[in-house]
Amino acid sequence: MRLSIALFDGFTALDIVGGYEVLANVPGMEVEFVASARGIVAADTRRLGLVAYRSFAEVLDTDILYVPGGPGVVPALTDDELLVWLRTVHATTTWTVGICNGVALLAAAGTMKGRVVTTNWSWRERVASYGATVLPVRYHRDGKIVTSAGVSASIDAALSLAASIAGESVAATIRLGIEYYPDPPGGAGSADDAPGDAKALIKAFEETVAPARLAGVQPPFACR
Amino acid sequence: MRLSIALFDGFTALDIVGGYEVLANVPGMEVEFVASARGIVAADTRRLGLVAYRSFAEVLDTDILYVPGGPGVVPALTDDELLVWLRTVHATTTWTVGICNGVALLAAAGTMKGRVVTTNWSWRERVASYGATVLPVRYHRDGKIVTSAGVSASIDAALSLAASIAGESVAATIRLGIEYYPDPPGGAGSADDAPGDAKALIKAFEETVAPARLAGVQPPFACR
């Protein structure tokens, strides 16, 4: 089975690596990182670079299309080359996975109308504006479409998908392999329980700091 | 504050990105990826490449030294250049972070004798053999040394460290930013509760499949 992870400038690394670390360990999985061109793609922090070794033109179909989120989603929402690629490849998949506000990218590509999905807590209205029904849950499956809440929820969504693909026992073994028995400081809860001032800080970060960094900070490595 | 993340061939990506995604968002943090030479370093799957843009020779001190684990730890345990670098930089840090069996690397570098630490469930005896006391917990702090259990525990350990550095409120805001309200399929628990056959599968993977892949599978990108 082939897992194609889409990279675009300004992705959030944990959106990718949370799900990758689970799905890459499903027996028989072949993983590839795909971007508009081969080369290094910079994360939202401008300090982490991941390597794409297939271009969009080289990947016309796949088994699992995996779309992360991040501050780079905002400019990517008007990137026609990316949106056309997502739409084209999605039509060929067995599974399509949207993480965080990467769900908005899939929606902008026209793949989410009438679908039931989840997304990052701060992107629910935006994703709903594309005609999707958005649930305030950590992950959700609607047919072949698996979506997750923000960033770290990629781990939970991928474990659920691993169970769908290879069975509960394989998923439980992968869980042991990544020792995923979380014990977050602060205990259980959800984004909806977070204090209003923390939500306001994150919103302000997403609306001002993150875009300014994307536009203005040069990565310390050469990007394609 | 400066966060220096050590890369070596065959790291496990989530060991790095789990903690990076938390610590990079601590206000004022400067992140750098460091390896024996600048360039792309391949993860244990041989399918994910991360960019190092500082060499060991360029980094003589730091505030936070961050050491991930992975199948690459086994060959790295006899890599004198890496061990000397870890020992030298550790002597200058405010915090030293060991994730998963990366704790064994720090121990082999001579930094863990008499310390109380944790590590990946399958590496406890090995780490203890270097003179550390190993606790079966998700993360632990002993003085300036913060250690975590396997892979995904890097998130919990880093949130705890973020609270030590910048306060509980900042850590809680970062937690919201990465939407870390885990809901793993299978519910709560720990590696110690996992079925014996799952443990045997992971041990076999670590002892045979992962080393064979490291030695025999060429990454689809050029490494340094």
Describe the structure.
The structure is a homodimer of 224-residue chains. Chain A is of the alpha/beta class and 224 residues long. Chain A has a single domain (2-216), classed as Class I glutamine amidotransferase (GATase) domain (Rossmann fold), CATH 3.40.50.880. Chain A is 37% helix and 19% strand. The first copy, chain A, has 8 helices and 11 strands. Chain A has helices at 13-23, 73-76, 80-90, 102-108, 124-128, 153-166, 168-177, 196-216; strands at 2-6, 30-35, 39-42, 49-52, 54-55, 64-67, 95-99, 116-117, 133-134, 139-142, 145-148. In chain A, the strands form 3 sheets. Chain A has a 7-stranded mixed β-sheet, sandwiched between helices. A two-stranded antiparallel sheet of chain A has the order 3-4. In chain A, α6 (153-166) runs antiparallel to α7. Chains A and B meet through α1, β2, β4, α6 and α7 of A and α1, β2, β4, α6 and α7 of B.
Task: Please give the structural blueprint.
The structure is a homodimer of 224-residue chains.
Chain A: E1 2-6, H1 13-23, E2 30-35, E3 39-42, E4 49-52, E5 54-55, E6 64-67, H2 73-76, H3 80-90, E7 95-99, H4 102-108, E8 116-117, H5 124-128, E9 133-134, E10 139-142, E11 145-148, H6 153-166, H7 168-177, H8 196-216
Parallel strand pairs in A: 1-2, 1-6, 2-5, 6-7, 7-11, 8-9
Antiparallel strand pairs in A: 3-4, 10-11
Helix pairs in contact in A: 1-6, 6-7
